[in-house]
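A reminder before we start the practical. When you read a complex entry, don't treat the lines as separate problems. The point of joint prediction is that each chain is placed relative to the others, so the output describes one connected object in space. Small molecules and nucleic acid strands, if listed, are placed in the same frame. In the example below there are three entries. Take a minute to note the order of the lines before looking further.
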Amino acid sequence: MGMRKVAIVGAGITKFVRRAQETGKELSWQASKMALDSCELTLDDVDMVTMGTAPDAFDGVHMKGEYLADGAGGIGKPYMRHFVGGGTGVFSPIHGWFHVASGMADICLVVAEEKMSSCHPHPQGAFLTIFDHTTEQPLMPTLIWIFALEMNRYMETYGISKADIARVSVKNKHNAMDHPAAQIPQEITVEDVLNSETLCWPVNRLDISPASDGAAAIVLASERVARRITDKPVWIDGIGFSIDTAYWATRDLAYPRYVETAARMAYDMAGIKEPHKEIHIAEPYDPFDYKELHHMEGLQLCKRGEAARLTADGVTARDGNMPICPSGGALGVGNPIAATGLMKIIEIFLQLRGEAGKRQVPGDPRCGLAQAWGDLMQMGTVVVMRK
Amino acid sequence: MAITEKINNTTVPTFWEGEIPVRYVYTYGLAGEKFFRAVKDKGTFLGTRCEDCDITFVPPKIYCDRCFNKLDKYIDVGITGYVETFTITFHNMDGSEKKVPRVLAMIRIGDTDGGIIHYLDESIDYEQIAIGMPVKAVLKPKGQRKGSIEDIVGFKAV
Amino acid sequence: MKLEDYELGGINIKSSDFKKGKVLTTEWEPNLKYAWDNGVAIGRYLAGLKEGRIIARICYQCKRIMLPPRMFCELCFRPTDEWMEVKDTGTINTFSIAQVNWDASRRGKDEPPLLPAVIEIDGASPGMGIMHMLGEVEPDQIKVGMKVRAVWKPREERTGAITDILYFKPLRAPAKKAGARKKTKSKNAAPARGKR
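Here is the predicted structure of the whole assembly.
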């Protein structure tokens, strides 16, 4: 297609915390600086900068992309913000990929930031307005409703129980014990999840990821430059993104078609025919535990309705045949929306390089993917990576 | 209302009213905390300096936005400066006329590269204001300072 | 590189320190008020609700009867063709039993849970659901697939709003005793909580 190969060569991240003292700019700088340091580059080496950050209404800064620019290293450079809701973090490398693959940049700094703690009384107040203002907002919905409705439909369609789903939360919070940036690593049991406060049945407190502050960054480079910078480039071999209708109540709530469409786009590009065999390790978006299962199915990593069984059988554990969310995911590491997706990209980057420390999955994984999802539960973003 | 009827009645509801019910509590950040603590406790302004780029940031930053160096040495830059630029406001936010016009200025602090946007003291004869005019910050009495931009009452001519 | 080798940024402020004001903060309450134009399709939809009717819109090309109505078909990318009144009955596609309010605050001990649902409206194309509330039903009696009917506000109280429908209630009263005897309660049946 006349596009250049693009590699990830460096990464940086802040701790994910409930309420950071740092401003969004400062968090962005901490992650960006670490990413550049990790591959021994300076800001002078960076041709272009992309910034991923979710609604302005979280940070409470209108035109947040512009506000964050100096912390992200964007001053005096081609700089652009992207935003596709919860899908933003995995769209970040896609946005940067366009810059490098097209030949416009040799080195692109990709930054993602979220500071949800500014929003009071709760970020849910900002979520209210993603619902249709005339036909839905008057019912005073919370975002949890929509997840509860989807989870219930998913359980009903495939005969899955709450306990089946709770295993995802147990696994991810356990995995997060080994992640240095993790906000809520915990050793819990399925019973703990089931006995935690019921928020919107079938969703309990421990089924949900927290609201978080944090930032992450990666450095992308063209093939020629990447090979000069590092012996261990991780290649972005496939990208995919797709959006479904905002008439969410008219969709099949048991199956994320938008994730499938995005995944097929990425697989075609990466030449992947049998994803469940060729993808060794995956970081699907898990803001709620059932979403990990939902997304595994949309990603064609297993058959519809089968993801819960794989989880119960330990296939998705860090030492299983197909490790899912070895980082600890949004459920364990935390969920500063845009930064979460990029954290997942960073996890696959480190895993493929064999640099994930205590989180390293066995078996020398060579191909991995990260996926995120967002807007009004309608946007799928997928990146396939190989070493 | 026949179902095939065209809409001729323009009195049907045509808009829907609502609001985004949020409020925000912002932290000042690592550099902002230091800056406003100094205003509150010491009655002075702090900046950070990047020697490589020869830039002094006021208010301070924890990083240089040109070279990305970490900046962690805070220097006292004093509370005097000069008017970099200004505007005179004659109206309130709601469009009504102000009894006394107010002068909003960007004040360059000392010999730094940074500045503070604030009001000039009401006692200033606004027809005498000029770019380059030396000014000094007027702070609230120490006991009344809370660590906010409102601790600065305004800037007065030196 | 290993994350473990770096000193990561991100200093968490303890909730107690935050409340005690140990770090400096500033507050802002934006005054964000809007008047959103309804447009033709939703304007007509609301006018219909005021009359106690649910009005959909048809696309002749894909033959979908769409709810909420829209003036263009997003799949065929052409103008839609005709208004059509559909029934005020439907089927529960999915539901929740919500113990939290819109701002994540918890429902009070004496407040019944909120019962949001996606309801596929009879007469519209299959799968055409709208979000609304359920009422006049015990939470533990709600089932996916249950038939429901709209309960409207009295005509004089309707304003042309989605809330002109108070909620949807089961078409038939659930056979409580029979249900209990046959133990048809599925493993996913919702726990009852709060009073009705």
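Discuss with your neighbour: The mean pLDDT of chain A is 95. What might explain this?
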